[in-house]
Amino acid sequence: MSNNSQLKKLDFIFNNENDWEEVLRKNLSRPHQELINELISSELKGRGGAGFPTGLKWKLSADAQSDIKYVICNADEGEPGTFKDREILSKVPYKVLSAMAVCAYVIGAKEGYIYLRGEYFFLKPELQKAIDEFIYYCKEINFDFSISIFMGSGAYICGEETALFESMEGKRGEPRNKPPFPTNYGYMGKPTVINNVETLAHTYTIFKYGAKRFYDLGVQYSRGSKLYSVSGDTPKPGIYELELGMSLTDFVEEFGDGDTKAVQVGGASGFLVPRKRFKETNIGYQGKLTGISLPTGGSMMLFNSSRSMYNVLDNYLVFFHEESCGQCTPCRVGCQQLLKGIKSVKNGEKNAQYLDKLLKLAETMQITAKCGLGQSVANSFSSIVENFREEMIY
Amino acid sequence: MNTVSELVKNLADKYGRERHNLLPILQGVVEQERYLSEHSMKVIAKELDLPAAEVYGTATFYSFLEHKKMGKNIIRICKTISCSMKSSNQILLTIEDMLKIKLGETTPDGVFSLMQTNCLGFCHQAPAMLINNDVYTELTPEKVREILSSYLNKNKEGVQYEQ
């Protein structure tokens, strides 16, 4: 970080403290309710992008009545521009495994799974070694828990929690209707806590240092730190842990190349923010009193003035068109038609007003698609078309 | 070499014969055979006592479970935004030129298949590609030629696969 930077760089996730055995032992002897309260008071929200309160998720699963429950770590990191979870699993796997064990203790689960995307197969041998050592330690302290790796096979949609369960059950990765929610009806129909890799790593921080240390970071409604995956037109691509609530102006000052035209916050399913809106935009969950708050799973992609936003949108739409599971019509047909539509406008087959029809279609998808994939296509589509309309036409 | 039936039986013994064991079994067959033939899918269906259509429906959902014949080494070049901004298309053209095949094709000797894939999660080290399970990043045309040559040499020495 440069000296005059407004950004607060932190090092909770990747620090090399190797005391997970002690942290685990200590927390496995605390009352369940105390752990849940600690998590709730930290106000940690899911770091995969959706931002559901983690403490509440654990509480709902703990309250669910069932002899069998599961803890699942979602490592199906597929959002374009996101690569932090891989780094966590390869550098600090014990934090994630310890967090899974504490979760299992709190909700009463005996089995845990890590759903690892097929693209990360090369991580498996090292991760399995860490799991073996971890489970050996669990046995030593008489804690009955197992963790298995379940490999994905190349499907973005399986990062959606219910599609992930379907995939683990040996089926096509098609999202389910919600409710029922995973906390009551998850993998194999049993109460399941499913958390993103980074979320679990933050719970480790909270259980080690206490909720206050975490809560004191960030801003109202957006507490704690967050890992950002920075890529695109930047001299410093990489992974950075920063306080939540930063303004996009500060971010661009630190990571831009001096010619930043727009930033994509939250990957292809997130929002494109043009330069004129950097100042009023903050990174965090909805609820701030002033300005715009944009959540992100961590993907921050910078574009400079050499980039055609038409090409960017075209790339996203090809992505969605290929990754749509095809189950519901708004998403299956909508993705195709949006892609076809912008091409027709670009090559002059359709006039510029056709873009307004496409914006309506995107809005319809947002309302009617079954899951987050189809619902969020409109985020990038509308923010690009509205802010860079002329680039779509000429 | 095992026949597909033996392979499937071994995989089913290892993972189990219930529906939730289907994906690891499909992955196991792809690991050995490089793809899922119609025959393989029928054998799996029989072994797990599932309708063949269910096996087909599941298998064809996942982009890494190929269902047409593939080469020994499957190249998958990332085409998503960050890699595309760092000229992943140049990498594709270099490989097409070197192997004399087009995207989606397999070399006549069956050593390489050339595919594109969506975000590999190496956006900060773009452009990136996978060859089988190994990832290669910050690619340049020169680097790609070297990498492919090393696979060609390995293939000549016969160390890569026994089949």
Keywords for this entry:
heterodimer, A: 394 residues, alpha/beta, five-stranded mixed beta sheet, four-stranded parallel beta sheet, 15 helices, 16% strand, B: 163 residues, alpha+beta, four-stranded mixed beta sheet, 7 helices, elongated
In short:
The complex is a heterodimer of chains A (394) and B (163). With 394 residues, chain A is an alpha/beta fold.
Can you describe this structure?
The complex is a heterodimer of chains A (394) and B (163). Chain A is α/β, with parallel strands linked by helices. Chain A is 44% helix and 16% strand. In chain A, a hairpin with a 5-residue loop joins strand 7 (225-232) and strand 8 (238-243). By secondary structure, chain B is an alpha+beta fold. Chain B has helices at residues 4-15, 22-33, 38-48, 52-59, 81-85, 88-99, 141-157; strands at residues 73-78, 112-117, 129-131, 134-136. In chain B, strands 2-1-3-4 form a four-stranded mixed β-sheet, covered by helices on one side. In chain B, a hairpin with a 2-residue loop joins strand 3 (129-131) and strand 4. The longest helix of chain B has 17 residues, at 141-157. The model of chain B has no long low-confidence stretch (mean pLDDT 95). The A-B interface holds A 77-83, 86, 117-122, 150-156, 167-173, 188, 229-233, 237-239, 264, 268, 299, 301, 303, 307, 311-312, 315-316, 318-319, 322-323, 325 and B 18-24, 26-27, 57-58, 61-65, 79-82, 84-85, 117-126, 130, 133-135.
